[in-house]
Design brief:
This protein is mainly α. The chain has a single domain, classed as Cytochrome c-like domain (Cytochrome Bc1 Complex, Chain D, domain 2). It contains 5 helices and no strands. The radius of gyration is 17 Å and the shape is globular. It starts with a helix and ends with a helix.
Length: 104
């Protein structure tokens, strides 16, 4: 019985870990890169590489998607709200780009 419980816990942890990793398509990342270049790069830097710009999005925690969505849609500090400008799929593409796009 104890082995079954341990195996069940291991499977549950594996499932939670797999669910946390979102599969992003190359097209989605590319769309996010384009949206970022037009709307976000002036403050966050081209390709998220401006040491004197706003928050370094290359370090944004992958487990804080809701924080990212709230910041983009409602704004934060000196960042204006973009919720009325972007469609939901564009915001998802931005998330894909930030998480997967420029990590090198």
């Amino acid at each position: 019985m104890k082995r079954i419980a341990v195996a069940g816990c291991a499977l549950a942890m594996f499932g939670a870990n797999a669910a946390a990793q979102e599969p992003f398509s190359p097209e989605q990342i590319k769309q996010g890169a384009g949206t970022f270049a037009q709307n976000c790069a002036p403050c966050h830097g081209p390709r998220m590489r401006d040491p004197e710009g706003a928050f370094d999005l290359r370090t944004f925690p992958r487990d804080q998607k809701s924080r990212f969505l709230a910041s983009v849609t409602k704004g934060k500090n000196s960042m204006p709200p973009f919720g009325g400008l972007f469609q939901p799929d564009e915001i998802e593409a931005l998330w894909a780009y930030v998480i997967a796009g420029e990590k090198q």
